[in-house]
Amino acid sequence: MTAILASLSLGASYAQATGGPPPGHDVLEQRGVVRSGSRPIAAAEVTLLRAGDHAGAGATPLARTRSDAHGRFNLAYRVPRDPDAVLYLTADTGPSRTPGRHRHGHRVRPVRLVAMLGQGKPPGKVVLNERTTVAAGFAMAQFTSGGEVAGRKPGLQNAAAISQNLADITDGAVARTLATAPNGDQTSTLRAFNTLADIVSGCTAGQTCDPLFHLARRPGATAPRETFQSVADIARAPGNHVAELFALAAGRDTYQPLLAEAPDAWTLALRYVGNGHELDGPGNVAFDAEGTAWIGNNYVYNADPLQSVCGSRLLSRLTPSGHDVPGSPYQGGGLYGVGYGITLDPKGHVWAGNFGFQGRGCPNDASRLYRSVSEFTPDGRPLSPPSGWRKGDILQPQGVVSDRKGTIWVANCGGRSVTRIPHGNPDRARNIAPGGNSMIKPFSVAVDTRGRAWVTGNGSNDVTLLSPQGTPLRTVTGGGIKRPMGIASDSLGNVWVSNGGAVVAPCEGTTPAMVAEAIKDIVTRDVDASVTMIRPDGSTPAKPFVNDGLFLPWGIAVDGDDNVWVANFGGHRLANLCGARTSACPPGLHTGDPISPAATGYTSDGLERNTGIQIDPSGNVWLANNWRNIPVQTNPGGHEMVVFVGLAAPVRTPLLGTPRHL
User: Fold this and answer.
1) What pLDDT was estimated at residue 16?
2) Which one, of 308, 313, 299, 312, lies nearest residue 362 by Cα?
3) H-helix or E-strand spanning residue 193
4) φ/ψ of residue 243, rounded to 5
5) Which of 303, 462, 560, 661 is the most exposed place for a label (fewest CB within 10 A)?
6) Separation CA 86–CA 88 (nearest Å)
7) What's the whole-model pTM score?
8) What is the DSSP letter of 424?
9) Where do the coiled-coil regions begin and end (predicted)?
10) What are the C-alpha distances in Å from 483 to residues 45, 227, 295, 627?
11) What are the CB-based long-range contacts (under 8 Å, 24+) for 386-392?
12) Residue 8 confidence (pLDDT)
């Protein structure tokens, strides 16, 4: 009891001495234990910190103590006034690495174990071990520098919550989300996570710190000096020294199950399913200002691919950690078989394109249902009528985007046109059809820095540029544009096009069954699969960008550093390319060079056939498992969103035009 009271006294006095909230606020006790596997770590310097509220702000210590002979500790601290404050614990141990001191006054030690407490009242007891450290390092990868955590809302807060999808900080075990279906033993992510924890355990044991720090070093960056920053650096450069890092786990089995061989890259991909019976053929995703994910579905949910299904009438909305937002999914407003088109406007209203997807055998007449878009309020209330907004000759809509003024652009895949809805006013909707041989099967739209709209023509192998008022300005061909699908803009005025090669958009006479037939025998990268950059003046490089991370490329997104991400309809892989702002790329890379492994991309057995891709405010990359690997046309839909944790530069949401770093 004497030791506990002394610890509480130290914690409270330290909080006051280091700029904690003024007296009179609630004082909380935080208990915990520091372990490596089941082995307690004594005399670890345990610090409770408040994360900084913007990049470079640094973290503020609230209390500090040492673990006892059993690894246990107690801290008392005054609760921060700010309800958005993110708290986390660090435990530093091992011999001092340098004669200098850390910015908070204690010496730098090679082992730093971390547990993210997040917002609100933390749990009564916390375990810090290698699992909680890997969870924190990956989730907070985009918010960690020099071993400290700082970042802007809501990305920082959401990332802290996501870390608890990987590790359970109350007992140091694998978190339920990662441990159970559709994750668990259904994908390799659990084994990769445990293997990373075992890699860290080698340093905790005092055996592999130097090689870990050397191998974790990101190209062009200084080497990390402790384990937490090492994990974050691995997460941000997961294709770096993969096999050598895997070798550091040899002979270790503290955490199981483990990988049997080195992966292509050290990524952690989680699958989210909401309530478990709503996602069927998710086509794309859009994020609101708080980072919640709005998702349209092709089909009515049914786990049996042999059961004929009609078009979904649900609009899904997931929290950043993959759970249904209370009250969702939403219905009404004319929703039916939403495809690739979903966006948010400046008011936070959600717009979805009703493509009319349905499985073979559905008795509905899709031609009566694929002529509208639906609009919802930020809380999921439909604003469009039961038949949807129909003005502007909407026909089989696919891509739907909003610009910064709230004008909605709709690509009419079955109508060789675009519908422009000025300022989101459906009564002013106007159809724009350039005519001739351009804009055939328009699939996706992107708005550039000047407010101009760029539209892919999947059937005409071109991209059409429209003025902010909708006037056709030019048609871009060449540069490898072949069966273009997705398109995205960057902050420098360029747009990026994913060339599907063999992918024919399922509209204007082409059925989903025809698409399935065309791709069923493709087992290697199609020769025309590539990415094209179009400059602001409409010119392109002579050749497109090609690597084996591109396999039936479909969706495309640009992150907060202007690097490019591509979802693939085949190959179970995610591609990452160096963008036009090469200063944000690893040293030595040029625009269009692969950042992900050139031979494979970032692979995951959690991926199926992916369409939509977007980056959230925490730097997580979301992909839609749109179709199953073998898409039986009665119900070909996949059932998950797949989220690569901490992989990209965060994006401010909602995405209106070009991406902005959070």
Assistant:
1) 35
2) 308
3) helix 189-204
4) -65, -40
5) 303
6) 7
7) 0.95
8) G
9) none
10) 58, 46, 25, 19
11) 386/332, 386/333, 386/334, 387/334, 388/333, 388/334, 388/335, 388/336, 388/354, 389/334, 389/421, 389/426, 389/429, 391/426, 391/427, 391/429, 392/419, 392/420, 392/421, 392/426, 392/429, 392/430, 392/431
12) 35
Cα separation, 395 vs 271, whole angstroms: 32
Name the amino acid, one letter, at 179.
Answer: A
- The CA-based angle 45-46-50, given to 5 degrees, is 135
H/E element, 609: strand 609-615
Residue 114 — left, alpha, or beta (φ > 0 → left; ψ -120 to 50 → alpha)?
A: beta
401, exposed or middle or buried, with CB in 10 Å at 0-12, 13-18, 19+? Answer: buried
* pLDDT beneath 70: ranges in the chain: 1-25, 96-107
Residue 529 DSSP class = -
Cα gap 168→117, rounded to integer Å:
10
The closest of 243, 231, 168 to 201, measured between CA atoms, is 231
Query: What pLDDT does residue 121 have?
Result: 82
Provide the token pair at 251. Answer: 């002979």
b/e code 334-353 from CB counts within 10 Å (16+ = b):
bbbbbbbbbbbbbeebbbbb
User: Kindly report the CA angle at 517 between 514 and 519, in degrees rounded to 5?
Assistant: 110
Q: What is the pLDDT of residue 97?
A: 58
Q: What is the pLDDT of residues 267-303, one digit of tens each?
A: 999 999 999 999 999 999 999 999 999 999 999 999 9
For the chain, give every domain's residue range: 1-265, 269-644
- Per the CB < 8 A criterion, the answer to whether 82 and 109 are in contact is no
Q: Determine the Cα–Cα distance for residues 192 and 187; give it in Å rounded to an integer.
A: 10
How far is Cα 243 from Cα 266, in angstroms, rounded to an integer?
Answer: 10
CA nearest neighbour of 595 among 271, 285, 284, 267: 267
SS3 content of the chain, % helix, strand, coil (to 5): 15, 30, 55
At 387, list the tokens: 């038949």
Distance CA(640)–CA(304), nearest Å, equals: 15
State pLDDT tens for residues 482-501: 999 999 999 999 999 999 99
Q: How many CB atoms are located within 10 Å of the residue 497 CB?
A: 30
Calculate Rg over the CA atoms of the chain: 25
Q: What is the Cα–Cα distance from 629 to 626, expressed in whole angstroms?
A: 10
Q: Tell me how far apart the alpha carbons of residues 624 and 555 are, in angstroms, rounded to a whole number.
A: 9
CA gap 574, 366 in Å, rounded:
32
Question: Residue 302's CB: how many other CB atoms inside 10 A?
Answer: 17
Can you give the three-state secondary structure of 558-583, one letter per residue? ECCCCCEEEEECCCCEEEEECCCCHH
pLDDT for position 107: 65
Q: How far is CA 406 from the centre of its chain?
A: 24
Return all residues near 196 (Cβ < 8 A) that are at least 6 apart: 134, 231, 234, 266
Task: Determine the 3-state secondary structure of 68 from DSSP.
Answer: coil
CATH class for domain 269-644? mainly beta
The two three-digit tokens of residue 330, written as one number: 């939403």
3-state DSSP assignment of residue 28: strand
Distance spanning both ends of the chain, measured CA to CA:
46
